[in-house]
Amino acid sequence: MAALYRFLLGVGLALAACPASARDHVETLTVDGRLRRYVVHVPQGDAAAPRPLLLALHGGGGRAEGMDRLTGLDTLADRTGVIVVYPQGLGRHWNDGRATIRHKVDDVAFIRAVLDRVEREWPVDTRRVGATGISNGGIFVERLGCDLADRFSLIAPVAGSLARDYQPDCHPARPLAVLQFDGTDDPIVPYAGGSVAGFGGLGEGGVVMSVDDTTAFWLQANGCRVAGPEQPLPTVADDGTRVSRRAWTGCRAGGAVVRYRIDGGGHTWPGGWQYLPERFIGRTTHQIDASAIVLDWLARRPRP
């Protein structure tokens, strides 16, 4: 397990070597006496027209600059006009609410400060602000839904569910849309909940709620009353995975819950890069593209 964790960190280092594009702005700010960093990708277009904003959070051991390679968000954002921000976690991790997180820095304050700065410096449509992330970043996105629901219209966790330790402290200020993407064969953050892989003590470990329990939590928080059917999506690739979608409606204004269940899927980004062999992280589905789904939702469904 320890060797695997070092391998994962090595991949994070390799991803960090990807250079920022000419339209990327590397920014810094100080929060609680610590210098923090984030990258802003701004598509070309009308500099004054308000645009949707998406924050994309790397996984444990990752880097901000590696998220585009994993997700393909920049190319899609250029087509849709969405501003994408890639924050960097201290020590390449996020304080996502698990009691076992070693460095309990105030990452929520950091994200709030990033939003304040970006919304001040760029033309952001504050009715269309979302957060997505994978693994440790996905678990942290769940926490952001708890603590900063007043700033987001959408959260979209990938391969990450709500930290069990944090659930009792989760009191969203208002409803928001929740898009949940999880693989049933995830070997690191279990779909059925329980212990997160600790990699021989080198990882953060801890416990997460199951995807079903996480979904049920957001249904209650959003006041959703009508359960839609489980809908198998068309098979478009022979990759050993199948995807079904279930949506709940009748929610309070601004609320929605959609769960994408990826049967046979691993600890991966749907439609993204297979960043490690399947024997380590499981399969990447190409039946859907999580990045395209999230950006389309932001563009088409502003908060009322």
The total strand number stands at: 13
Task: Write the CATH fold name.
Answer: Rossmann fold
Number of helices: 8
Structural class: alpha/beta
Succession of helices and strands: HEEEHHEHEHEEEEHEEEEHH
What is the CATH domain class?
Alpha Beta
- How many discrete structural domains? 1
CATH H-level name... which superfamily?
Alpha/Beta hydrolase fold, catalytic domain
Rg, Cα atoms, Å: 18 Å
CATH architecture type: 3-Layer(aba) Sandwich
Largest beta-sheet characterization: 11 strands, mixed
The percentage of residues in β strands lies in: 15-25%
- How far apart are the termini? 46 Å
Shape summary: globular
The overall average pLDDT, rounded, is: 92
State the share of residues found in helices, binned by percent.
25-40%
Low-confidence stretches: 9-22
